[in-house]
Amino acid sequence: MNFQRSQSKVWFGSQQNSIYDNFYSLPTYYNEKKSLQSITEQHEESLSPENKTNELKRSMMIWGNRKSPSSHSHKSQDSGFSDVETSPTLGTNKKNISTTSDADANERSPSASSRAATPPTVIRRPSKIPIYEEIASVKRLSFSAPSSPNELEESNFEMISPSKSNDSSRSSCRSCKLKRSRVITKNSRLPSLKSLNGSSNDSFTSMPYNNETVYFGDPDMMEEKSLLNSSIDFPAGTSTPKMKSRSLMLENLSKLLPPNRIYKNHLFNGNFASVQSWIDGLQFGVSNEVMSTLQSKSIEMENAILTPTLAYKMIKNLQTKVYLLEKEFEDVENLGNDSILLPSIQGLTDVILDFVVQQEPKKIYYKQCPKYYKKISENLYSIREMVTDLKRLAGKIDLDDLEDFPLNDDLQLIKRYFLITVQVMFKLLISVIADNIEHAKSDIFEINSGFEILRDIIVDQQENAKQETKEAISCLAHITGPWQRSSESNFKELKDYVEDYIEGVTKIVETTESSQTMLICIAVLNNLSRLEPTAVYSLISHQSIYKVRNRKQPHRDENNSNSNSKQSSASSLNHSDKNTNSSKNTSPTRKYVSLSSWYIAIGVASIAVVSYFVYFGYLETRVNTPLDEKKIVQKNPDPEKYWGSYRPHTYFGLKTRDPHSMVVGLMWYFPNKLRPNGDGIRHWCKLEDNLQKYGWTQHDGKNFGFQEIHDGNFLIETSFIKFYTGKYGGEWTARVDVKPKNASILEPMSLIWYAALDEKTSGSIKPTYDSMYGIDGVTKGLGNFKINLHNTKGKILRQSFLSALSPSLQSLRETVLTNLRLASDKTTKEKFIILSGETLDETTKPNFVALQVNVDLPFTLDITFQSVSNMSAFAGDDLITLPVGDDYTKLLSKKQKEFRKKFTETFHLEAKGYEEDEIKIAEATLSNMLGSVGYFYGASKVQSVHTNGPVPYWRAPLLTAVPSRSFFPRGFLWDEGFHGLLISPWDIDMELDIISHWFDLINIEGWIPREQILGVEALARVPEQFVIQHNSNGNPPTFFLTLKHLLDKYPEEMLKNTRIGILDKLYPRLNAWFTWFNTTQRGELLGTYRWRGRDASSITELNPKTLTSGLDDFPRASHPNDNERHIDLRCWIAFASGVMTQLGNLLGKNTEKYEETFNYLTDNQLLHEQHFSSKTKTFADYGLHTDSVVLKRPPPPPPVKEKNPYEQPTIPDMIRVSFAHPETRFVDTTFGYVNLFPFLLQIIDAQHPSFGMILKKMRDPELLWTNHGLRSLAKNSPLYMKRNTEHDPPYWRGQIWININYLALKSLYHYMRIEGPYADQAKEIYQDLRKNVVSNVIKQYKLTGYIWEQYNDETGKGSGCYPFTGWSALFVTIMAEKY
Length: 1379
What we know:
Elements: E1 5-6, H1 41-46, H2 49-65, H3 74-79, E2 81-82, H4 105-108, E3 135-140, H5 149-155, H6 167-170, H7 193-197, H8 248-256, H9 273-300, H10 308-333, H11 341-359, H12 363-366, H13 370-396, H14 407-437, H15 448-460, H16 466-479, H17 498-511, H18 515-531, H19 535-541, H20 544-549, H21 558-573, H22 578-622, E4 643-644, E5 653-656, E6 663-669, E7 693-699, E8 704-711, E9 714-723, E10 731-740, E11 749-756, E12 763-770, E13 772-779, E14 783-804, H23 812-818, E15 820-825, E16 831-835, E17 837-838, E18 848-867, H24 868-875, H25 886-907, H26 916-931, E19 933-938, E20 941-943, E21 951-952, E22 956-961, E23 971-972, H27 973-986, H28 988-999, E24 1011-1012, H29 1016-1019, E25 1028-1030, H30 1039-1049, H31 1057-1080, H32 1127-1147, H33 1152-1161, H34 1164-1171, E26 1172-1173, E27 1178-1179, E28 1182-1185, E29 1189-1192, E30 1215-1218, E31 1223-1226, H35 1237-1240, H36 1249-1258, H37 1298-1311, H38 1319-1344, E32 1350-1351, E33 1358-1359, H39 1371-1376
Parallel strand pairs: 14-17, 20-25
Antiparallel strand pairs: 1-2, 3-15, 4-5, 5-6, 6-11, 7-8, 8-9, 9-10, 10-18, 11-18, 12-13, 13-14, 14-18, 15-16, 19-22, 20-21, 23-24, 26-27, 28-31, 29-30, 32-33
């Protein structure tokens, strides 16, 4: 579905208390989009043939400069939408509202100003729907001011009706003639404006631009109103005057040239006659010489050879051209029947012909591969013929004749031939590179036996089969090379023999005397380490790298070495012939050695150069290449999971688990509170809406949900229940119930229920009417369906609908805002706001349908979704009745009781002594997390050191909970691990589904982007600087927390077939993820680790942030460098290796390497050596650090002599100033969450004295202890509650965070049950800390209605964003003690 971007904007009045107050006291509006107005039939007839030709040429030139779909299409003008979205500049200066003078007429003209006016909306025939018969007229809410003060007085909201029309109304600039065939606007070019106006004046006054009035009712009752009372006399057309030739010689020369010569470079065409003749003369004079030179060069190229280096360059060049051409194809395909379609097709054909011409000379290189050469030649010839025919046809037909000429079919055929040809070219070039690197055949390795044979040869290494061993090594280097790796590669069995290959190759490295063999062995080890992550462990265990580095320089070649040794022995035994033999044999041997060395050097250099280019290109693709393992997520989800509240960023929205799903949702507003910029329309969850409270109070994650929204004096309750029938995901009923809290305070309210299609959704929707509005539609995933509204309780004042094209899903609210109209009742003259109805012509399908009801409160609206395709299969043509009204109320009550029962059985809060209101808060917290699970689809923007810029990740789905519906409505990697600790006790399968989606996003390197911004709606909520994800940066691997929780608490449940199958598919992905951490984040010293992503060059940060650690601005070493050691990351790797051991043992895997890693990293003695400060008796980071840093503002720049007096002085940002040189040491003056990680992840021994020291410091009120939980940074730390920059408030520098408090309580719960000297102390701290955390979260919820991102360490008040039912929701598990 192609979206058209909206340009129509609606001004709802000044900052008045009501939208109805002083409606016309509003600023004049100018749009920033240039608009090409359509030319009227009269103007077309008045154009001369010469002018018509010039105009056609100009229209054809549009195509060459076009970067995006045109805004000048019939679709854009008909609908009031264009392709470029701009932000309106809304002024408030009342002096703009004035009569336009002659002097500024040209400035006010949209055609003469860069701020052109809003494109008009087509005037439609009056609606036949009965609901509009009561409306006398409907006025489009316009931005322009009245053309005169008199008109302002006369208007005053009085709508022009047939009975009141008079001469003054006929001349009003706001009226227009109702004409179906074509819209005539102020910018239309007219042959004679005098004839229209009946005026003889030569000058005209500009009319302020205004979108037309839209009328509903009987068309016969409407009187014609003149279009204009004044305008600007636009010229009918322009053309360059023709100059007579000044040179008879050039004039005669031009006769020798072909008539109407057109050059491919448009700069050579359309010049003055004298200049054109001169250009033609130059072309005529040099063409023969040029052709002769080109022919001689082509003869020289007949014997050209396609080398690997040249093939690589040709591949890069071909990639660029193909990418550009694909974009051109897409642009033309998206035009539909646009007015510039034909010129665009002609432009595209020129580009294709240029491509064919450029490829013709290169065919000489393809002759060395006759099979490919013939195919490429034939295809290029076919493309040339088809493109020439298409260009000729596009130049002859008119736009109205497109239905008779299948240009689109021809274009698709050309595109298909083009892609086939390019594919053949790529195959040829890649085969040249591969064949020149190694001629060994790898066909036998497509089956297991081939790899076994290769393993036997390399491992056995028979003395009498050295040559066979060398060939095996060479073959292994070839098949493991980067040029052989792709998604289609069938070498998965190779990974089973990696351990044996490395063992055998390492032995060869120790014994070989051949430099060539040594080089190939090194290549094999390198290839294997990149092909299979576990190869790193094999390299370490066999000390392969060490043995390569310490290997003595081998001889040049084994055979020559043996012969030389024999010569030496013979000469030593033959002393009598020593001088004679040496004089005869030395010279030829040296010459042979010298020549052989040159041959080897050249060969190795050639291989190295080609390998470099190929391997570098391969590295570029690694960042967005999926891991070559089976996908975990099934394409066809369980029907029970198909529909859901998967739009957490909206107050109430539903969608399916389709990549391009239809979305439905709720908007509402109070007309008296509506503001010019749309404030007052509720749709997306926003902090700016300042709602007293909102969130799901009951949600089971699958079948139903119930939500409360408190908006001022009104309580809005939304709910839904799903039903399952057939293959299309079933049906549902939703309810919106609005009640006033204070019945004495009432005001009108408008509810909007809508359905919208994604730009790539295959299907259609349309409005229907049967006592109430509805929506009919069909999509690939849903089949045929119906959406109906039901008035369950209350009075509907008005109904209206909108059928339109929305630019994208992120612009639905703006599309509604643009199409709101002010109307009045025939009898009561009451004014109200409605939607504008149908905005599209019959040939354009809408992607957005909205249904509005203006209601008196209280009011209850039920919405039903019925799958006609499902019902037809079960009940023929009779649709099954879905529950509404009382039936729905009863069913909802039943679902709520079932939810309460399951919650009680899962968390047992009553048994732990909690009150009813506290339990309801816990229920609401869990429900809001389950209701915040969203389904996203799209591609992240990623970047690696090997790419020149950001590149798209592969498009994929993601099911994930979001931390905050209002502020972080997207997936975060380290947050999601904490979310699973609450979701898994409620629904194990739901959590495994979420984990599966996340690990299907892992790439071939073992990296997962830490922030998932998928889809246009998610992208709209993210600052630009956070969009690009770098593959060197990770996040804490918190999914290992969830997995350990599942393995420890539900061992029997995890052994079920489906669940154990998911774990089996998950294991190799976890393996790759762990390996990525263990290799890319390791430190300089063995056993140490360092978070990547810190900016060592930052001068505006007091302490450069470590966003990758998840603890953002927690103080680390003040001057980042490669020698840093981060204690928290080391503990995460140790914890992860233990979980991998546990999971591997469950699945029957070899876990020896993980056990060794776990034992090594949990060695308390080594941990103390690398991270324990004897000075402060704390675990700490290590690095280049000083505490003597402050933020200071540098002096302002010197004043400029000729400075604008109105220009504000530039104030430079504060920068960091160090008062002492940093030293390499422990960062032990800081104490906080990071220093607790050996305790938080249970790495420290329960009997170790340092454990007792940790407990003592935790309990110290001057350090971390508060009455509300553990603060993130000790009060005596140098950066406690200090800003990191002048613009960034403290984040992890003192506030209380629930996720870390959860880890602390989980560890205390663990240690207090282990016998030891500190068990009682741990139990005491556990009980006090648990009480403090739970009581404060509940207290703040009762005060504010929300769970918060963080809490103030002094007062306990919530801070940050809200509602934050991400990891802050873990207080529910703390209440239940489910660790």
